[in-house]
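Per reviewer request, we include the raw input and output of the structure prediction for the construct analysed in the revised manuscript.
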Amino acid sequence: MSRQIPAAHFSLKLFVATAFAFLVTVAAPAHAEAPVAGWPQAVSDLPVEQGIRFGTLPNGMRFAIMHNATPSGQVAIRFRIGAGSLQERDDQQGLAHFLEHMAFKGSTHVPEGEMVRTLQRLGLAFGADTNASTSYGETVYSLDLPEADAETVSTGLMLMRETASELKLDAGAFDRERGVILSEEKLRDTPQYRGGIGFLNQLLPGQLVPRRSPIGKIDIISNAPVDLLRDFYRTYYRPDRATLIVVGDIDAAAIEADIRKRFGNWTAAAPAPADPDLGTPEKHAERVGTVVVPGGATRVQIVWTRPYDVAPDTVAKRRAQLVEDIGLAVLNRRLSVLAQQPDPPFVNAQAGAQDVFKSAHVAMIAADSDPAKWQAALAAIDQEQRRIAQFGVDQSEIDREIAEYRSLLQAAVGGAATRTSPDIAGTLNWSVGENLVFTSPAEDLSLFDTAMKGLAADEVNQSLQRVFAGNGPQLVLQIPQMPDGGDAAVEKAYAASRAVVVTAPEYAASVAWPYTDFGKPGDVVERRAVDDLGITMVRFANGVRLTIKPTKLRLDEVLVRAEIGHGRLDLPRDRPLPIWAAPALPLSGLKAISYDDMQKAFAAKVVGNDFSIQDADFKFEGATRPRDLQTQLQLLTAYVADPAYRPDVFKRVQQAYLNTLAQLQATPGTVFQRDFSSLLHSDDPRWTFPSRTQLLDARPEDFEAFLRPLLSKGQIEVIIAGDVEVDDAIRMTAQTFGALPARGDAKDQAADTGVHFPAPTPNPVVRLHDGRNDSAGAAVAMPIGDFLSDLPRAAAANVTGAILQNRLIDQFRVAEGATYSPQGDVDLSRSIPGYGFSYVYVETTPAKVDHFFDLVDRITADLRDGDVSSDELERAKLPIIEAVKRAQQTNSYWLQNLHGAQTDPRRLERIRSSINGYQAVTAKDVRAIATTYLRPEASWRLKILPANGSAVR
């Protein structure tokens, strides 16, 4: 299976992953040459992708190496240990994850505290490029190296070898890290997480998975002796459970030789452990259960389970999965149509099937709903499932899903040569965990075409019968408060729905895309090239501006953005407007075609439409391929010129927001996410998350009234970046946006935007959350200014912010164990003159909040009073520089950074000077930023404290 999972398959995987979001990270598969013992292709008839060196060392460690030059000069390394929380004993719960943390805490050749610093000196940022994760059955260490030179790659491999068998696991370091783990446990203890655990307990009673959450048990994290950790390390960090993956701009043969030399002497420190007994799903017929999660979402889930299939990955198995995916895609399409109806029974619903941690195969249909309407959601998904089971699918539905699935596989083939190294490495790692052959995108398409040839409704219907067989149906209702009547009321509602006789579905006719002619193509009145950046700028007679950046960074990928007007800055400051309803615009479809019919018309196309309201524009955006660029431009133009504002879609988005309010009050992090933007814009309603009253009072006509005139009159700027010819882009834009009625050309924004950073806080602003009493949040922010008015200042401020965050990590996390992961950023506006700030945020205990404020004051005072060392300066600068280099090798970078470039030359200068600007930052520059801006008397502070259940909104 290739990195680009096609539509039906991807949506199903993504849906089940969402249902298990507290647990699962879904990636995908990819490539090789000849069958190699120990790899899935050795026992499969599937051809592995060519170009990957697969191997197994005599000690049992597997490796996969691939040369890949996207991005150029970079390397991705993944080191997988096939052990996670499922391998823990009862007295070790949480120690697999704890061990992952300890890999950064000292080894034979890397003293404690030096691993992260070593990587920073090579240009890696902690978290973004240096990371690790622990799941139920694996622990994965990841490095994305910014350079492919011998020293950098050697250092990366050395660190993985240290992790394999050389960790010190010092008792003192172990004790210091307990607080960090406990902070992470609090961070992850959300309503969504608790709902997920409750769901697994209902789904897999008596099996091991529900009893082995990777975060573990608080009492074990707090009190376990270090010997239990060492025992897990000796037992499970062994060559025959390890896989090393290296993908990048490398000499694969040289890397293999290095791996054999470094890892060949690794030997197991203990006898091979037996695999845990994961249990098997209980045999049962229909049953009902309820999971009550205060502050959580309302979700109705109907589930069928059967034992996990341990058979190898084969052509026949893949074909059966593809046929199942097509059937479930038809069901999902029907659910989508239901969601588009006036007064729909649910906010959204989807069906899917997948293996769950090698413990069961699960098929599920689920719906999110208003807590007061769960009965309607239950009835809808139950009856829709029974309808497809009883009457099956129509050939026209199958053909539509095949066309959509194939179009995405074709797009994956087109972009195969420019897949990124991190994507390939991640997909390879995923395929190892799932025991799948790493097939190429071309092979995936070939397999699909062969499987779909002559596929008829009878076979799809038989596949769906198998999907909904096994143990079940099992209804699980997740809800914030137990319904009146308890489980008996849920059982009664389910019985009432199942008593309803379902009727055969009605099949809609095919539709054609109606927006192909916007009138006479626009005339080009200005065209100029920016040769050093490879950019072409065009202005049409109607005032529309087009900027084109042709690249081969990702083959067969074209990104398109249309920016209208000035976004939030076009809106009034004196009253709230339903800005939050932006998702309703694309979901409402167009006047001449509904949203659902649009999906039918585009089944064989690769196009997209995302709409959002930004600080400085109303943004439409889509990703396509060269052959569909004309349709993509037609789609975005139609939404600008002829949108339909459907009240029922507005109400659906409104209900989705209402459903999230309790969740956003549930933890310090969600309160911060909800309120921070408003607070740092001095409660400006244009940046304020809506209250319950504002949501309930909002009307669909209010949304249309403010948005329609702004979209119909605002100046238009189109940006196209990717695999496109300049003349083709100009011609297609002339036929679409260029053909619209004339609009005003770019106009200067009023000097007074009304946007202001809040006044300093003598006493911190206080917000409350409804979560745990031992959890709090704290933030400090200081105004600096905008980005473009002073590019050297912006570069120095970003470096200074990185130093501040690094010191917080060293002191508040590493030395004190008082938080899991300090966050911070220097957010200097590129749209609002004079506005921008630096901030840091942590989640900790209430008792540590004031200490955090004191620590920030001490760090900033130190930055003001003396120059940072050259080493600390370089460790802050290099990860920023490498991040810019990496970003510049993506089409999305150009799409974002060419905004406004035709009328504001500073934006082009920023692109040209960005890397040199960061390289030029000195210790004196850092001190000047700290002296000018990072002053306690200018700072704004926030506390988020537990409310003991008393909400403030």
